[in-house]
Amino acid sequence: MPKTVTLLGSTGSIGTQSLDVLRAQGWGVFGLAAGTRADVLLAQIAEFHPAVVAVADEAAFQKVEAALAGTAGAPRLLKGPEGVRRLAAMDGPDIVLNAVVGIAGLAASLAAIESGHDLALANKESLVTGGHLVTDAVRRRGVHLLPVDSEHSAIFQCLQDAHSAKRLEKILLTASGGPFFGLKAEQLKTKTKADALKHPNWNMGAKITIDSATLMNKGLELIEAVWLFGLPPEKIQIVVQRESIIHSAVQFADHSVIAQLGVPDMRIPIQYALTWPDRLPGPAPELDFAALTRLTFATADDETFRCLAACKKAIARGGLAPCAANGANEAAVALFLQDKIGFLDIGRLVEGVVDSDSYGGAYTLADVYECDAMARAYVAAHV
Q1: Scanning 6, 166, 171, 319, which has its CA 20 to 30 A from the CA of 83?
Q2: 191-219 average pLDDT score
Q3: Contact call for residues 214 and 179 (beta carbons, < 8 A)
């Protein structure tokens, strides 16, 4: 049956690919939320006719408001981060897809869950910074949390046999290795923003592409996998799969391994999160085994890529340590993209903030934001 979706982060890479899926399926859009890209958002409004639109950025909101003034059938407009959160909580959609980048997506994830919506989650920071808040809310409200990241979707797909899932022994979380695979620290000293933005397989936004280059993205996904699948971090092995064809795998008690394969196209996991438990024809191309000449594997190098090492430390410490790592990374990546720090400084700053405190114990949403602010202040003070 056709579905109606609220899409948060509609103008980013995941958001635009999500709209490809909705377009292909002929599904409706209840709400759209975006940040700064007003022109892209206006084109989406003209095509999909949402009932409600939220714009987080003030200048972009004013531009959208002016463009829609006097337009018949214009959507209701909401402003700022609070407007995005309100949209996430609104009745109307069958499912909410959160593709907001960064910790900014946490409040919207919690709002959608607390309002009884199933949540398709592309915002990994919701689980990294507030894992127990999100998972507790999912259990309490009895909704479904459906992973959109290609790796977590792959694991989720491999575990659809409920009986076998009880015998899960290990997760094999794959990584492309990013543009700097095989390089050592001395070689990374001079790498620039332009170098780091050249991902070999995936077309993604700037922040997540830098995270792939530092392997921070894989560290965040390790933390996310702990919350999604209930395994301790030592039961999650990161495997470099350079071709990005095997998106992840699971190993059971008898040492059988089941993997999910497909072309490196985010529309496959996006669509599965929206159609689960069904599978439908979609816009992504099929995997051509006749052209697939090799699959290679390697170990992720956390001695060189310190962001990955920092994330491993953070999830082992628990509490707010993952939140601190994420906040420091968001601040450091922003500085790197502004050419204010070097590539290796990102890992130095992230590991430094994780090592600066114990971070243990339970926490509230207010504690999450306080920790995030502390981590960003740490970065500013140690540049």
Answers
A1: 319
A2: 88
A3: no
Report the percent of the chain where pLDDT is more than 90: 93
Same domain, yes or no, for 136 and 174? no
Domain co-membership, 15 together with 45: yes
Q: Which of 86, 117, 147 is the last residue of a domain?
A: 147
Q: Nearest to residue 96, comparing CAs of 19, 30, 6?
A: 6
Residues near 35 by beta carbon (within 8 Å), at least 6 away in sequence: 9, 11, 12, 55, 56, 57, 60, 100
Q: What is the pLDDT of residues 114-162, one digit of tens each?
A: 999 999 999 999 999 999 999 999 999 999 999 999 999 999 999 998 8
The answer on pLDDT for 204 being more than 80 is no
* Whether 142 and 160 share a structural domain: no
* Residue 244: both structure tokens together: 């990005």
Q: Which domain holds residue 197?
A: 153-382
What string of DSSP letters covers 93-157? -SEEEE---SGGGHHHHHHHHHTT-EEEE--THHHHHHHHHHHHHHHHHT--EEE-SHHHHHHHH
- pLDDT tens figures, 290-325: 999 999 999 999 999 999 999 999 999 999 999 999
DSSP per-residue letters across 152-191? HHHHHHHT-SHHHHTTEEEEEEEE---TTTT--HHHHTT-
The CATH number of residue 127's host domain is 3.40.50.720
* Residue 276 confidence (pLDDT): 96
Instruction: Name which of 224, 265, 35 is nearest 124 in CA terms.
Output: 224
Shared domain for 76 and 163, answered yes or no, is no
